[in-house]
Every structure is written in C-alpha cells, then in structure tokens.
Amino acid sequence: MERTRRSLAVTVLVAVLATGGCGGSDDATPRLKVQVVGTRPHDPRAFTEGLEIDGATLYESSGLAGQSNVRATDFATGTETARADLPAPLFGEGLTRAGATLWQLTWQDHIAIARDPVTLAERTRVAYDGEGWGLCFRAGRLVMSDGTGKLTFRDPGTFAITGSVTLTSHQQARLNELDCAADGSVYANDWPTDNILRIDPDTGAVLAIIDASKLLPPTARVGLDALNGIAQIPGTDRFLLTGKLWPTSFEVRFVAE
C-alpha cells in the first residue's frame, strides 16, 4: 500500500515532541511568531507541497499519487489561469520559477519536471537521486530540500548539483517547502511541525525559528494535514502561508514574540 506523508506524521511527531522540537530550553536562536494581516480561501482538496508568488501569479503544487497537480492563479483575483495534472503514480512536490522555466519536483519518483511558466505544459524531465521536497530559486541557483537538514543547490538550466549546505544547528529538522525571500534568506517549513526556519543558505545557520501554531486552533485541524506552503508576497514584508488540505491561506508578518 502506498505510503504517504500523512501515514508518517504520527511517528515523526512523537519523535519531535520527545526531543523538544527545534532546539531545547537553552536554544538561543531568535524566536518569532506570525501576525495575521489577512486571509483568503484555499482549495481544501489541495495537498499543498509547493507555493510561490512570481509577479502577479501564484503557483501551487499539490501532492498525493493520482491527485497531484500544478496550478497558476492570478494572485489578486484568485482566478485560475492554467493547470496541469500529474499522471499517477507521480507525487507532486515543491516548485519554483527560474527565469523562463517552472521547475516541479516529485517526492520519491526521482523526477524533476521543467514546465512553461505560463501554460504549465511539460517541456522535459530530469532524473535525480533521493527524495524531492521543497524548491526555490535564489541568486542564479535552485535551492532544494529532501526532508533532511540539508539544502542542495542545483543549476537552473540542467538541474545538476552545484553544491550543498547542512544546517549548523537544529540538524534534526526535516526541511520541506522552501521560499527564497528578498532578504537573501531561505524560509523552510520544518515538517511536520508548525515551525518555519529562517536559514542563511550560504552558511547553513538558522537565523530564526517562527512559530505558526496559532494560525489554526486544534478544533479547526480535524481532518487536515501539516502546515506547508510559504511564499513571500513580492514588494512587501508579508508572506502567504497555508497547509495540506487547509481551507484558508493566511497573509502574515513575522514579528518578535
């Protein structure tokens, strides 16, 4: 039987709680929280794996074998402008736009798909080793996560590996969806927790831990999956956050606790 992330969540969450999550009581990493400044509807059928805003377009990749797709919507209106479904058994994962190419990962299928960023039509596929989780584009290179505490850098044209960096602290984090922000940081969902890590991609230092646990109360989480999906809103200090099967996306700022 196919193993999805949801089936892993209980086991991993127990481990996270047992070890105190990201950092212990002596952890000096700055801690932030989310300040909600707005909400918007989110497709509750979307098992969100990748989220990115490029100009006026919101891109979203959703997972689950046989249900995976990628879509583009007008960020201001929410109108869907393009959509492409992935054939089973492909499990869609993170995505990012790098110039004239939209790259989309798959989870355990070892395939990255290069797409037209307007029509979302598939152009080519590239094989890679390991698992694909999150993806973003910064300073001429793709930044990829694989569910560990490591970020891998790839060429945006060929998808070849050009380097990597490992977190210098919080090495137990399972880096998932990524956002390469305007400040040069990489923001990463730490699956399956409600933490987002702000990372220096050049050194691997964790610059801050953002607690997003207050976005949805426990009573509203019945039947939902983990927080996943982070995208900076261009030209602002705000981010769009959502989760797998969540009915709502949140526009937030990251502020001191």
UniProtKB/TrEMBL annotation:
Keywords: Transferase. Pfam families: Glu_cyclase_2 (PF05096). InterPro entries: QCT, Quino_amine_DH_bsu, WD40/YVTN_repeat-like_dom_sf. Gene3D superfamilies: YVTN repeat-like/Quinoprotein amine dehydrogenase (2.130.10.10). One of its GO terms (molecular function) is glutaminyl-peptide cyclotransferase activity. The keyword Transferase applies. PANTHER family: GLUTAMINYL-PEPTIDE CYCLOTRANSFERASE (PTHR31270). This is Glutaminyl-peptide cyclotransferase. The lineage of its organism: Bacteria, Bacillati, Actinomycetota, Actinomycetes, Mycobacteriales.
